[in-house]
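User: quick one - fold this with zinc ion bound?
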Amino acid sequence: MEVKSNLDDLRDLVERFMEEMALARYRAGAGLGEAGAVDSVIRRHNSLMDPAILEMVAEESGTEEAGVSDELRRALLFLHLDEEARPSTERLMAEMRKARLRVSGEDIPFLDSSRRIDAEGDRRKRALIALARANKVAEWEPILQHRLARLDEKSREMGRKGYGALLETESGFDLAALEGQIGEFLARTQDLYREVFSWLMKSRLGMDPADAEHHDLRRAFRGEEFDSLLSEGQLLTALSNFTRAIQIDLQAAGRIEFDLEDRPGKQSRPFFSRVRVPDQIILTAAPRRGHAHIRAWLHELGHSLHYAYTSERVGFEGRLLGDNSVTEAFGFLMERLALEPRWLKRFAGMDEPVPFVQFASAHRLYRLRRAAAQYQFELRLYREGVSTSLADEYRVRLSEACLCMVPRAFYLFNISPHLYSARHLRGWILEAMLHRHLVHYFEEDWFRNPRAGQFLIRLWAEGQEGGADRIASQIGAESLDLQPLIEDFEKKF
Ligand SMILES: [Zn+2]
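Assistant: Sure. Structure tokens for the protein plus zinc ion:
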């Protein structure tokens, strides 16, 4: 197929590609996938991978009457980068699927090793699984290095000074400003986290916090005793009570499908798929237990509601592209319901929600600090390029943020796609601002107020148009403000 010169056609092509890809990925994650389905979507849309498209788009953007928005240009740019990295990404996936860990005569699939670490009460055995996992990941370092090298080369082919330089100009937000905010967040929550961490280690594992390793922290955060307090069945009941009170249609008039049945090959982590925005959104979850699972479920629901309520009048860019910090904020806002004692009492029938809320809030603080350190590390990686000294940098940074020893082997394994860690961090900051606004106008129990429901529906209707700054301005702020997030934690403990 020839490169289309008509830009509307190009927009349609990208939209169709995204739809077909979302459907293929949904089917793969839901255990319904046919082998090679994702490949065949890419083959069908081969014309989008033509380097001439990038040249054409670069020429057409940045002018007054430009037919190509920054969002579309960036989407194509990152599509080309993903395509360049795809062979290494797929090789890593294949390795992960077949890898087994031998621990004390037991054979553990690599993909089950995280769950096993969380569940293992015997510290010696847990440490051995964690060590075997880290050793396995270290074997994949050459694949991960190769992947980054491909991204770097491709960026240079596109006339940039490297992948890091490309991220600096094409992420669409000020990387250094976020770095400053994140540094402040880590500093200002340090004492609070030290207390929380010490309480967790002593009360849950009976151990000296100074001796804790990362696998101990994972074990402490499993929290089995909360499993029966908020099961998936209770969650569904709570959600239907909640949405009735706030007057939001949980299914968005049929635009959200729920795929909740158990099925071999179904991914254990909940995920959402935007097959068509706003008409066909699928929330997929396998029945599992645990506070982290329930919160991940709520998070994906937040994304699903956001996209299913996006107005069809919003253009392609605002519906499918743009700043994902916006949708992350809505994900975190729904996730927060499991941290609201009044929501848990009223809708989930939890009599004594406070211990659960404290535990889940501690976990949230840990995740945020970890993501903050991860972002700092990723910036350093992109500024300096890969070197083995960076593995030590990773260990030190992450260990300082989490207050326990994080193995260095994960330094390339855990990096987020195209600095996505920043979208989560900006989403968390924006969510705390939104939450403060909701409480200010609709009071502490905003979640049972239909006017709050209307307010959210209005925000969702605009999709991601205007990015995080648009939402900030709609709630009376000039830009992303860290203060509400910090105060949020100070109030929780
Ligand atoms: Zn998310």
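One thing worth noting: The mean pLDDT is 94.
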